[in-house]
């Protein structure tokens, strides 16, 4: 992927590898002159500081928070190079990918997913760790 706004981040899937099993890119390349941004894990808290009990609502809020934190640094989802996903229960992939694809489009960033027993607060069910370059 060469983003229309910049060429700082390029994403692709080498033909020598199996296709990704999800909506992610195997390779994300960052240009040499880019600044790296590492964000604290984003959670499903809403603008009123409420963490909903519903897993899918947490997913939606988490993705909204990612877009907002990127914008705070004058970045877009095109600048994201890697997302680590930590979940305490099985992800509803239909809902997750609906939101993910809306945010990241047809050429999403690299991704790692892990199921774990707990996150930093007992009510958290998902947290996304985002790295970007711009």
From TrEMBL:
SUPFAM superfamilies cross-referenced by the UniProt entry: YjgF-like
Q: Name one Pfam family in it.
A: Ribonuc_L-PSP
Write the protein's name: Enamine deaminase RidA
Species assigned in the record: Paenibacillus radicis
Task: Please spell out the taxonomic lineage of the organism that makes this protein.
Answer: Bacteria, Bacillati, Bacillota, Bacilli, Bacillales
């Amino acid at each position: 992927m060469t983003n229309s706004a910049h060429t700082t981040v390029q994403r692709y899937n080498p033909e020598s590898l199996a296709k990704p099993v999800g909506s992610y890119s195997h390779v994300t390349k960052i240009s040499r002159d880019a600044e790296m941004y590492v964000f604290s894990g984003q959670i499903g808290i809403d603008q009123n500081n409420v963490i909903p009990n519903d897993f899918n609502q947490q997913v939606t809020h988490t993705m909204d928070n990612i877009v907002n934190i990127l914008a705070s640094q004058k970045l877009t989802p095109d600048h994201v190079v890697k997302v680590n996903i930590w979940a305490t229960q099985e992800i509803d992939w239909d809902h997750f990918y609906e939101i993910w694809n809306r945010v990241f489009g047809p050429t999403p960033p690299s991704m790692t997913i892990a199921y774990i027993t707990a996150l930093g607060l007992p009510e958290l069910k998902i947290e996304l760790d985002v790295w970007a370059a711009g």
